[in-house]
Amino acid sequence: MSARILDGKAIAKQVESELAQRIGALSARGVTPGLAVVLAGDDPASAIYVKHKERAALRLGLHARTVTLPAQVEPSTVAAEIDALNADDAIHGILVQLPLPAGIGPEETRALLQRVDPDKDVDGFHPVNLGRLVAGEPGFVACTPSGCMRLIAESGVDPAGRHAVVIGRSVIVGKPMALLLLAADATVTICHSRTPDLPAQVRAADIVVAAVGRARMVQASWIKPGAVVIDVGMNRDADGRLCGDVDTRAVAEVAGAVTPVPGGVGPMTIAGLMQNVVWAAERRAGIVPNAATVE
Predict the structure, then answer these.
(1) Is pLDDT of 294 > 70?
(2) Which one of 43, 119, 121, 123 is the catalytic residue?
């Protein structure tokens, strides 16, 4: 079996096309959706990620602003910038680019993320939005899980009644991913470092989402024939080459559909962010769709 390759770049373009009409409706009301990114430090990968987000926003006609801060910045300075953006009516969505500099510890990072107004939390990391997701109420959904759901939809597989396995339990991907699949009526298993016989768990799944950060960990022998495999990982192998959590070439001989790395989940994460920014602007303008997921 040769799997269908789920082209995240092409699907992200579809999402942008779908957003264009909504952005046009906002423009007719005199509203330009605004995104602000707080970028602290000099991490090269973070700078590249922020550039991709800025380009996507500008391509769609959104207002994009980056607040750049030095690596030696104090948490109080970051907090003051977040407060200013919370109060700025031209900004509908705020995200704090992670990781923050090494001088800002985990507790301080958590406090800064929670300082973002939940109604501008387009990353979907605030406990208020995570709680809304658990309760099934409208709220911002973390961008990567949202994009993964669109990729699953594009595979042609309806999660309802299917067995889904999520490998990884982070608040950023694993837990919200499991909740979205559960809301789509899948039976969901969350696997992690303490899960016994992980290959057997994965082998039972119709849908696999790998989000652990280990290069090519998921092997073809783990995959149920015809399964949909979503690879969230972004790693470097022993030769320095970019790869995911899945041995894509081998898995493609077994799976029904699989995402590539790069070009799979990455573009859909940015599409999910754009979706959230537009939804934030719509809410402020009194246009209230039911959810902020990439649909």
Answers:
(1) no
(2) 123
Q: If we measure between CA atoms, which residue out of 23, 12, 41, 48 comes closest to residue 278?
A: 23
pLDDT of residue 1: 57
Angle at which helix 174-183 crosses helix 143-154, to 10 degrees, equals 50
> Would you mind telling me the total number of residues written for the chain in this entry?
295
- Find the radius of gyration of the CA atoms of the chain: 19
Q: How many angstroms separate the CA atoms of 26 and 77, rounded?
A: 33
pLDDT score of 136: 92
DSSP three-state, residue 11: helix
Q: DSSP for 45-89?
A: HHHHHHHHHHHHHHHTT-EEEEEEE-TT--HHHHHHHHHHHHT-T
Hey, is 208 helix, strand or coil? strand
Amino acid at 218: V
Q: Based on the residue annotation, tell me whether 123 is a catalytic residue of this protein.
A: yes
Confidence band for 295, pLDDT divided at 50, 70 and 90: very low
Q: Locate 38 and state its tokens.
A: 């707080």
Q: Which of 43, 97, 119, 224 is catalytic?
A: 97
- Predicted TM-score (pTM) above 0.85: yes
Told to judge if 21 belongs to the known catalytic residues of this protein, a careful annotator would answer: no
CA distance 24 to 34: 14
Distance CA 120, CA 92 (A): 6
Tens digit of each residue's pLDDT (9 = 90 or more) over 206-265 = 999 999 999 999 999 999 999 999 999 999 988 889 999 999 999 999 999 999 999 999
Q: Establish whether 83 is a catalytic residue.
A: no
Catalytic residue among 43, 53, 224, 245: 53
Query: HEC states along 221-263?
Result: HHCCCCCEEEECCCEECCCCCEECCECHHHHCCCCCEECCCCC
